[in-house]
Amino acid sequence: MNLRPRLIAALAIFVGMALVPPVAAALGDPFLTVIASRMLVFAIAALSLDLILGYGAMVSFGHAAYVGVGAYAVAIGARFGVTDLLAQMALGALMSAAFALVTGAISLRTRGVYFIMITLAFAQMAFFFFVSQSSLGGDDGVALTARSTLLSTDVLESDIAFFYTILAVLVLCYGGLYRLTNARFGRVLTGTRENPLRMQAIGYRPFPYQLTAYVIAACIASVAGVLLANQTEYVSPAYMAWSRSGELIVMLVLGGIGTLTGAMAGALITVGLEHTFAAWSEHWRLGFGLLLVLVVLFSPDGITGLLKRLGVGPRHD
């Protein structure tokens, strides 16, 4: 199997994003780096959802709950003197893994629309739990006094340093998921997506693989949440609202479900278009919706599928 096209596509995304800060400096517009940081954060979140939706056919409408849990790990950690970014990521991953292990074990007993609704229900439970926490600002959320430290330094206070930190995390997440999805685990997960009965017939139990993928995706989403809280310097229950989960699904549809490069591209394009359209009109969602309709009608497998048909995109991830 020729692995070069997909790796080249991912490398092109990483290199292109790495050039944003110097380009922003040359244009005298540092806000471009801030927008690019947000794009990278959601690329991480989209990657995590693609693992369970694209490879495992688990359509979760509550995935943003884990982004929110990661964000609150920053606020909770800061209250107890835990300000290091890596420690907060570990805390967020631990909290998300515990939540995903319990809710995933229950949710995976269902299929189809029932799975969608039960993941939504659990996400709403998490949403209202944090809304009820007045010590954390309740529905209004809580502002962070500063960004997290990194190895006992305040280097992340620099938007450029923070941008490259997020980019490094994205590269690590992509590399890990790339290896995972191309290993036996990923092939079993993909086989379960295609025909679970056949996978059982050849000796594989889908449930442990699906639950493991569900927990891994939750942990990665929580990492995105930690970075999002630092990027905005604010934590709110809105991060885990059902509409945010819908936005993550839109990113996958736009980029291409079941391809890691498509997940990243979809997130980058979606966030970029949001800022572009919003600068033109307050009714930007109408234009974005029309664009999404066109993509679904004429390229159901997203932008990566369109590029593949044109012979310039990666065939698989």
TrEMBL record:
Entry's Gene Ontology cellular component terms: plasma membrane
Its membrane topology: Multi-pass membrane protein
Location(s), subcellular: Cell membrane
Keyword terms: Cell membrane, Membrane, Transmembrane, Transmembrane helix
Domain of life per record: Bacteria
Pfam families: BPD_transp_2 (PF02653)
Transmembrane spans: 35-57, 64-82, 88-106, 113-131, 160-177, 207-228, 248-273, 285-307
GO molecular function: branched-chain amino acid transmembrane transporter activity
PANTHER family hit by this protein: ABC TRANSPORTER ATP-BINDING PROTEIN, HIGH-AFFINITY BRANCHED-CHAIN AMINO ACID TRANSPORT SYSTEM PERMEASE
Listed name of the protein: Branched-chain amino acid ABC transporter permease
Species of the source: Pseudooceanicola sediminis
